[in-house]
User: Fold this.
Amino acid sequence: MTFTSLADLVRDVPDFPIPGIQFKDITTLIGNGAAFQQVIEMLATRYSERSIDAIIGIESRGFIFSAPLAYKLGVGLVPVRKPGKLPADTHQVEYDLEYGTNKLEIHRDAIPAGARVLIVDDLLATGGTIVAASQLVEQVGGVIEELAFLIELTFLNGRDRLPKYSVHSLIQF
Ligand code: AMP
Assistant:
Protein backbone atom coordinates (compact mmCIF):
# COMPACT_ATOMS: atom_id res chain seq x y z
CA MET A 1 0.00 0.00 0.00
CA THR A 2 1.50 3.37 -0.98
CA PHE A 3 1.39 6.44 1.25
CA THR A 4 2.69 9.99 1.17
CA SER A 5 3.80 10.62 4.73
CA LEU A 6 3.88 8.65 7.95
CA ALA A 7 2.33 11.55 9.85
CA ASP A 8 -0.69 11.57 7.53
CA LEU A 9 -1.41 7.96 8.51
CA VAL A 10 -1.81 8.78 12.22
CA ARG A 11 -5.50 9.33 12.97
CA ASP A 12 -6.62 11.99 15.43
CA VAL A 13 -9.43 10.79 17.70
CA PRO A 14 -10.83 13.66 19.78
CA ASP A 15 -11.88 13.16 23.40
CA PHE A 16 -10.42 9.67 23.80
CA PRO A 17 -10.09 8.10 26.33
CA ILE A 18 -11.39 11.16 28.23
CA PRO A 19 -12.68 14.60 27.17
CA GLY A 20 -9.92 17.02 26.18
CA ILE A 21 -7.40 14.41 25.01
CA GLN A 22 -6.70 14.22 21.29
CA PHE A 23 -5.66 10.60 20.90
CA LYS A 24 -3.07 9.77 18.25
CA ASP A 25 -4.32 6.50 16.79
CA ILE A 26 -1.48 4.47 15.25
CA THR A 27 -3.68 1.60 14.05
CA THR A 28 -4.16 3.46 10.78
CA LEU A 29 -0.37 3.58 10.31
CA ILE A 30 0.48 0.01 11.29
CA GLY A 31 -2.41 -1.22 9.16
CA ASN A 32 -0.46 0.02 6.15
CA GLY A 33 2.20 -2.59 5.43
CA ALA A 34 4.57 -0.26 3.59
CA ALA A 35 4.34 2.36 6.32
CA PHE A 36 4.87 -0.14 9.14
CA GLN A 37 7.84 -1.58 7.29
CA GLN A 38 9.30 1.90 6.76
CA VAL A 39 9.07 2.68 10.47
CA ILE A 40 10.95 -0.48 11.44
CA GLU A 41 13.53 0.02 8.66
CA MET A 42 14.17 3.62 9.76
CA LEU A 43 14.73 2.52 13.34
CA ALA A 44 16.86 -0.48 12.32
CA THR A 45 19.04 1.77 10.13
CA ARG A 46 19.56 4.20 12.99
CA TYR A 47 20.47 1.55 15.54
CA SER A 48 22.15 -1.24 13.56
CA GLU A 49 25.65 0.23 14.00
CA ARG A 50 25.12 1.27 17.62
CA SER A 51 26.20 -0.87 20.51
CA ILE A 52 22.84 -2.12 21.77
CA ASP A 53 22.50 -5.29 23.84
CA ALA A 54 18.72 -5.30 24.28
CA ILE A 55 15.55 -3.46 23.35
CA ILE A 56 13.15 -2.51 26.12
CA GLY A 57 9.51 -2.41 24.94
CA ILE A 58 6.80 -0.65 26.95
CA GLU A 59 3.35 -2.25 27.21
CA SER A 60 1.36 -2.24 25.18
CA ARG A 61 1.71 -0.16 22.03
CA GLY A 62 5.47 -0.04 22.57
CA PHE A 63 5.55 -3.79 21.89
CA ILE A 64 4.29 -3.22 18.36
CA PHE A 65 7.53 -1.44 17.42
CA SER A 66 10.04 -2.90 19.86
CA ALA A 67 9.44 -6.53 18.89
CA PRO A 68 10.14 -6.25 15.15
CA LEU A 69 13.08 -3.93 15.85
CA ALA A 70 14.66 -6.40 18.30
CA TYR A 71 14.14 -9.20 15.79
CA LYS A 72 15.70 -7.13 13.02
CA LEU A 73 18.72 -6.14 15.14
CA GLY A 74 19.08 -9.69 16.48
CA VAL A 75 19.01 -8.59 20.13
CA GLY A 76 16.77 -9.58 23.02
CA LEU A 77 13.43 -7.94 23.79
CA VAL A 78 12.70 -7.03 27.41
CA PRO A 79 9.09 -6.15 28.30
CA VAL A 80 8.19 -3.38 30.74
CA ARG A 81 4.64 -4.27 31.74
CA LYS A 82 1.62 -3.18 33.72
CA PRO A 83 1.46 -4.56 37.27
CA GLY A 84 0.70 -8.22 37.84
CA LYS A 85 1.63 -9.37 34.35
CA LEU A 86 5.27 -10.38 34.81
CA PRO A 87 5.51 -13.71 36.62
CA ALA A 88 8.94 -13.59 38.30
CA ASP A 89 10.46 -11.07 40.79
CA THR A 90 9.94 -7.48 39.65
CA HIS A 91 10.80 -3.88 40.39
CA GLN A 92 7.78 -1.56 40.29
CA VAL A 93 7.37 2.19 39.78
CA GLU A 94 4.27 4.44 39.93
CA TYR A 95 3.95 7.58 37.80
CA ASP A 96 1.53 10.21 36.41
CA LEU A 97 0.13 9.89 32.90
CA GLU A 98 -1.32 12.58 30.60
CA TYR A 99 -4.60 11.03 31.77
CA GLY A 100 -4.54 9.32 35.20
CA THR A 101 -1.78 7.37 36.94
CA ASN A 102 -0.15 4.07 36.16
CA LYS A 103 2.36 1.53 37.42
CA LEU A 104 5.02 -0.33 35.47
CA GLU A 105 7.16 -3.36 36.27
CA ILE A 106 10.30 -5.03 34.97
CA HIS A 107 11.80 -8.39 35.87
CA ARG A 108 14.70 -7.91 38.27
CA ASP A 109 16.86 -10.28 36.23
CA ALA A 110 15.79 -8.90 32.83
CA ILE A 111 19.22 -7.69 31.69
CA PRO A 112 22.82 -8.20 32.75
CA ALA A 113 24.32 -5.27 34.70
CA GLY A 114 25.90 -2.75 32.34
CA ALA A 115 23.85 -3.83 29.31
CA ARG A 116 23.34 -1.01 26.79
CA VAL A 117 19.66 -0.73 25.98
CA LEU A 118 17.30 1.17 23.72
CA ILE A 119 13.85 1.90 25.17
CA VAL A 120 11.02 1.99 22.60
CA ASP A 121 7.48 3.32 22.98
CA ASP A 122 4.84 4.49 20.54
CA LEU A 123 4.46 8.04 21.77
CA LEU A 124 6.16 10.66 23.95
CA ALA A 125 3.57 12.92 25.59
CA THR A 126 4.37 14.40 29.03
CA GLY A 127 7.27 11.98 29.49
CA GLY A 128 5.94 10.36 32.67
CA THR A 129 5.89 6.86 31.20
CA ILE A 130 9.39 6.99 29.79
CA VAL A 131 10.84 8.54 32.96
CA ALA A 132 9.33 5.63 34.91
CA ALA A 133 10.56 3.03 32.42
CA SER A 134 14.04 4.60 32.47
CA GLN A 135 14.11 4.40 36.28
CA LEU A 136 13.21 0.72 36.13
CA VAL A 137 15.88 -0.01 33.53
CA GLU A 138 18.53 1.75 35.60
CA GLN A 139 17.38 -0.08 38.75
CA VAL A 140 18.15 -3.38 37.04
CA GLY A 141 21.57 -2.14 35.90
CA GLY A 142 20.87 -1.06 32.32
CA VAL A 143 22.67 1.79 30.56
CA ILE A 144 20.31 3.76 28.33
CA GLU A 145 21.70 4.33 24.84
CA GLU A 146 18.62 6.21 23.61
CA LEU A 147 14.85 6.59 23.99
CA ALA A 148 12.98 6.03 20.71
CA PHE A 149 9.39 6.93 19.83
CA LEU A 150 7.25 6.73 16.76
CA ILE A 151 5.48 9.98 17.74
CA GLU A 152 6.47 12.98 19.86
CA LEU A 153 3.87 15.53 21.00
CA THR A 154 6.35 18.42 21.13
CA PHE A 155 3.87 20.88 22.67
CA LEU A 156 3.87 18.80 25.88
CA ASN A 157 7.66 19.27 26.28
CA GLY A 158 8.26 15.68 27.39
CA ARG A 159 11.90 16.04 26.34
CA ASP A 160 12.45 18.61 29.06
CA ARG A 161 11.95 15.86 31.65
CA LEU A 162 14.64 13.76 30.00
CA PRO A 163 17.78 15.94 30.06
CA LYS A 164 20.00 12.95 30.91
CA TYR A 165 19.01 11.02 27.80
CA SER A 166 19.23 11.09 24.05
CA VAL A 167 15.68 11.18 22.63
CA HIS A 168 14.69 10.24 19.08
CA SER A 169 11.25 10.43 17.42
CA LEU A 170 10.17 9.71 13.85
CA ILE A 171 7.06 11.92 13.73
CA GLN A 172 6.48 15.20 15.57
CA PHE A 173 3.13 16.91 16.14
P1 AMP B 1 3.31 10.23 28.73
O1 AMP B 1 3.67 9.39 29.92
O2 AMP B 1 2.49 11.42 29.11
O3 AMP B 1 4.54 10.61 27.93
O4 AMP B 1 2.36 9.35 27.83
C1 AMP B 1 2.89 8.39 27.00
C2 AMP B 1 2.09 7.13 26.98
O5 AMP B 1 0.69 7.36 27.00
C3 AMP B 1 2.40 6.40 25.70
O6 AMP B 1 2.62 5.04 26.04
C4 AMP B 1 1.18 6.57 24.84
O7 AMP B 1 0.78 5.34 24.30
C5 AMP B 1 0.09 7.12 25.75
N1 AMP B 1 -0.45 8.42 25.30
C6 AMP B 1 -0.39 9.60 26.00
N2 AMP B 1 -0.99 10.59 25.35
C7 AMP B 1 -1.44 10.06 24.19
C8 AMP B 1 -2.13 10.60 23.06
N3 AMP B 1 -2.49 11.90 22.99
N4 AMP B 1 -2.41 9.78 22.03
C9 AMP B 1 -2.05 8.47 22.09
N5 AMP B 1 -1.40 7.90 23.12
C10 AMP B 1 -1.09 8.68 24.16
